[in-house]
Design a protein that fits this description.
Elements: H1 2-21, H2 34-40, E1 46-51, E2 56-63, E3 78-82, H3 101-107, E4 111-114, E5 125-126, H4 141-160, E6 165-170, H5 172-183, H6 185-188, E7 191-197, H7 218-225, E8 229-230, H8 235-244, H9 250-261, H10 273-278, E9 284-285, H11 286-298, H12 309-316, E10 333-338, H13 346-355, E11 359-365, H14 372-375, H15 379-396
Helix pairs in contact: 4-5
């Protein structure tokens, strides 16, 4: 009798463990690259390489028309999508077409371009530097502002023959817009409308796990993370994919994401967590991490602080890093921010809003966290459709 009871208990215990670790059906897009994602959903794409002034080679993808169109000979409004920190062009494609902004805009009749910032897994080539060298990784978002964004936008303008294009930035993509369009007037003139999702500048009031980096000294950060890349694809990604795609654990993983981005777990498609984890994070430089830490501590949107008066004089000709002046950015701007966003905290957003010279629209979505603007279940209705309306109305003027 006792033997039978023990056997039943063992069966129940192992059965429970099996159920917990029982995998869901796997999404094939989890380990696809950008071109594979586009092809998987039946869209035509073009791929280019942009070479920056300082020698970095950046992959650039184009979806020239919607899925049901057979030609892109007719001139269309051109839209460029700039991803956030530690992400890549793939983040605009990780949901099915009706809920991925890259596909959504193509089907709405636009010529869509997807860029990559140096240092992510797609952008690790250089004209002469080895990607394993410290020299390759000696960049922060200053270089993305000065070199990456201008090279990419100039390439698109020249290739399409359009004098002006539409810009969509998420997270770091918004920071790059403020930095580049405030300091490079020729570049700013090539942007017709500037759409910003989850806008960040200094992260001074950010909360959640990311806030811990503000408390690390530069030396400590380099001891922990090294002096090259950080948050690149690794075994941790496969570990996360394994556990976050189990039937009874995915909800736990969903809630863990709130520690990074803010609380709105009901707006995440848990059936696609393996895809999200497969495409984020995909790498950046440790120096970029240090630059964000600097902004958190100082609350100032400025160039990278080299840590001494001498080094700052050497790089900038002045003892302190020069500031980026948001008010100097004159491009018409529409902005969407979230009330539960741990990175684009509402306090920081209010301070930013007060300094934007040409803000034509600002929608505050009380329940939105940082990633809802890109992968949220209701993003098509609350954000994507409005971007399409703005562009169409602008085209009709």
């Amino acid at each position: 009798m006792w033997g039978l009871l023990r056997a039943m208990c063992l069966v129940h215990m192992f059965g429970s463990i099996f159920c917990v670790f029982k995998p869901k059906p796997r999404n094939p897009e989890a380990n696809m690259n950008v071109s594979e994602l586009i092809s998987f959903w039946g869209y035509v794409y073009e791929e280019y390489e942009v070479v920056t002034e300082d020698g970095y080679i950046l992959p650039l993808y184009r979806i020239p028309h919607g899925k049901n169109e057979s030609s892109h000979l007719v001139s269309k409004p051109v839209v460029y999508l700039q991803h956030g920190w530690t992400l890549s062009a793939s983040i605009w494609l990780v949901n099915p077409p009706k809920s991925s902004l890259g596909f959504f805009l193509a089907d709405a009749g636009f010529d869509v371009w997807l860029g990559n910032s140096r240092g992510n897994i797609y952008a690790r080539k250089h004209v002469y530097l080895d990607s394993n060298s410290k020299e390759f990784w000696a960049f922060s978002y200053d270089q993305l502002i000065k070199y990456d964004l201008p090279a990419t936008i100039d390439f698109i303008v020249n290739k399409t023959g359009q004098k002006q294009i539409y810009y969509v930035g998420h997270s770091q993509g918004t920071l790059l817009a403020f930095g580049a369009f405030s300091t490079n007037t020729q570049l700013a003139q090539k942007i017709k409308l500037n759409f910003l999702l989850g806008p960040v500048i200094t992260l001074q009031h950010s909360t959640g796990v990311i806030r811990t980096i503000a408390y690390l000294e530069t030396t400590t950060t380099k001891i922990i993370f090294g002096e090259k890349d950080i948050f690149s694809s690794s075994d941790a990604e496969y570990f996360a994919q394994f556990f976050c795609h189990r039937e009874k654990i995915a909800t736990v993983c969903n809630n863990l994401l709130t520690l990074l981005f803010g609380y709105n777990p009901q707006n995440l498609n848990e059936s696609r967590i393996d895809v999200y984890v497969g495409h984020a994070p995909v790498g950046t430089s440790v120096q970029t991490l240090l630059h964000y830490s600097q902004g958190m501590r100082t609350g100032i949107f400025q160039a990278y602080d080299w840590g001494s008066l001498f080094l700052n004089m050497l790089h900038y000709g002045q003892p302190t890093p020069p500031q980026y002046k948001v008010e100097d950015m004159k491009v018409p701007t529409a902005m969407w921010s979230g009330g539960e966003d741990f990175l684009a905290d509402p306090i920081d957003v209010r301070q930013l809003e007060a300094n934007i010279s040409n803000l034509v629209y600002h929608k505050k979505i009380a329940e939105y966290s940082h990633m809802d603007f890109v992968i949220g279940l209701d993003a098509p209705n609350k954000v994507f459709n409005e971007i399409v309306t703005f562009i169409n109305e602008d085209q009709s003027i």
